């Protein structure tokens, strides 16, 4: 500071560094190993993260001051210290409204990486002199005469400074007390897997307690390095966090590396003038599935940007290259060399399709090359007889659904629309390349935006097991790796690959289970439903042919299934016997949900607390009939809660007067598997122990039901859906308390012949007692009718019945509820 008399004073010396001079130059002495010191708003990223401090840190702080002088605000702001720390570490400042050369100097001083800034303040000074033409200052300015007024002013400043110091010391003491409390808060948030909260809490506290190793540990465990590259470089990178949600912020310009980005899932947008905006996802959330850690994600997000004039607003660009289908049940193992292509950003909407209809699309024979035109005129009529989708009326969709995907269209109609637009239906290879996150971990949980962890509710990103379609531009955080929306759920989508009995369909629809995303359905070309739509593709170059449009293979060879004889099975059954020890059961929660009461119950099995839910309908005579529900794979994989599944699937059964009972087994949301869990090999003895433990928990749940006077213990049905028949088949064979059993969307798979006998469902299916009903979709993609469902049905003993509906894996409520109600009325008796 220059005094009026010309004397120079150095203030705030506490953070200055000593310098030892050696023959090879100056060596800076650190203030402390890994110690963060300074005023938060002006601290450099390396100070916050405890890195090495060089003169470049002072350049950063000076850059903050210059930015504030020029704009009137700080470059990194926030309502809380955590917000400020996060901004310094991850966000780029907003552009300055200043002369370009001056703005460039300030922005260089504020680079996140020390090596990208000016090495010293002297280097920065030279650039400032260059743009201003100012001469080097040789001496101090002359001082004016001293006066009594000036002395009084100086004395006043000193008094104010001492008062401010006292206030600051008091505030600093309180800050340290709060920071000490923040250590436990940050560790708690980390344990709860609230990684952004843990990171921001720890970062703010570290600025006050720079030597606290516990805070550094939290920061290390709640963040990771992320890099962003674009071709060409120089694109602005915007990040938007999914949960906890936050506003979109400018992270920097490619190539960009953020050393500590909080674990979260991000939507990433790349923008560069003259090039089409590209959006993708960055999953940064640590994942597990079935007790296993998911593979490490790519460290770098890379995008190739295309000239804006080549990418229509309604489409996104997808790079080509060799591609193989992913997942377990692939319909082809061939590798296809894809060329760069465009795919519709959204599913074709009712509004889009209405333009086609009103433009005479159904009256132009040249668009209908896959079907005689007289067949077009005969079959494709709406409810009022006008040309159009069968669900429409008067040549138009229902009001309010204009932005919903068009449904009720056959493959022929989708193909004609694509021709009218000068596009094509995608091949299964193009569709999957655009839809599937590049890293795979199982057939279904590598979703468009990344991997889905066990215990994470994925329904916030996609419309599966919903109540109908959603607008095509909804659920923006569910977009795919190249920016296409709703490729998982909402509507299943036609492709142009033949697959008996018609064409391949991908993605799953709003009524399907979440794992349908990883399956390939096959539907007749004339088939149409409220769950089926499409989108189109267009090549960036060429005619779009030879992109993997060949016919796909159908079902595998079905082996002969031979169960063990009765004597051998009695030995197996003995493995599932158990002792009826005290349950120590209690109702721990009771919620009135309108039409029913939901009770959460806990009981004990082998020292483990087992949660269960009992739904009790109102206004029906007690004791109640009860349906024991075993849910589908989305619950077993920890992607949807058990109560959600009950209420979506069987809410109408509850309203019809029957109680629903469901038990939370390990792996469901709310009951994570123990740390270090490894799923046993299905051929091992450990697989038997694993199955016995699951079945025992379910049987002990039935023991609890028998203690309830409001439940009719003689009228219990078992309802298993899809994956729920895995343990359900075993339970149905060893348990005699079920009066009737209903299986929906189930089957036996060829590889089960190698399973260990005491846990092999093939041995249990023929021993399932009671009256049995199987409800199966003719075009089920998850459990195909001919190759998996029929073998299971053939193994069942009488009395049994198979009902096949015209649809896929999951029946609609209009099919499911009447079928279930008729069956239960017949086997349990009508409800009073």
Report on the structure:
There is one protein chain. By secondary structure, the protein is an alpha+beta fold. Helices cover 29% and strands 20% of the residues. The strands form nine sheets. The protein has a nine-stranded mixed sheet with strand order 23-24-25-27-26-28-29-30-31, with helices on both faces. The longest helix has 44 residues, at 148-191.
- Termini distance? 90 Å
User: Averaged pLDDT, please?
Assistant: 87
Percent strand = 15-25%
The major β-sheet equals:
9 strands, mixed
Low-confidence stretches: 18-37, 135-143
Calculate Rg over CA atoms: 33 Å
Instruction: List how many beta strands DSSP finds.
Output: 31
Structural class, by secondary structure, is: alpha+beta
Give the helix proportion (percent range). Answer: 25-40%
Tertiary shape: globular
The number of helical segments is 20
Q: Which strands sit side by side, in order, in the main sheet? A: 23-24-25-27-26-28-29-30-31
Quaternary structure: single chain
What is the topological layout?
Blueprint: E1 19-22, E2 25-28, H1 45-48, H2 55-71, H3 81-90, H4 100-109, H5 121-132, H6 148-191, H7 195-208, H8 213-221, E3 223-231, E4 236-241, E5 249-253, E6 256-262, E7 265-271, E8 278-283, E9 288-289, E10 292-293, E11 300-304, E12 315-318, E13 321-323, E14 336-338, E15 341-344, H9 350-358, H10 373-379, H11 411-420, H12 428-435, E16 446-447, E17 450-451, E18 492-499, E19 502-506, E20 520-523, E21 532-533, E22 537-539, H13 566-574, E23 586-592, E24 596-605, E25 608-617, E26 624-630, H14 633-636, H15 642-655, E27 659-663, H16 685-705, E28 711-721, H17 725-734, E29 740-744, H18 761-764, E30 771-777, H19 785-795, E31 800-805, H20 813-828
Parallel strand pairs: 3-11, 18-21, 26-27, 26-28, 28-29, 29-30, 30-31
Antiparallel strand pairs: 1-2, 3-6, 4-5, 4-7, 7-8, 9-10, 12-15, 13-14, 15-22, 16-17, 18-19, 19-20, 23-24, 24-25, 25-27
Helix pairs in contact: 2-4, 3-7, 4-5, 6-7, 6-8, 7-8, 15-20, 16-17
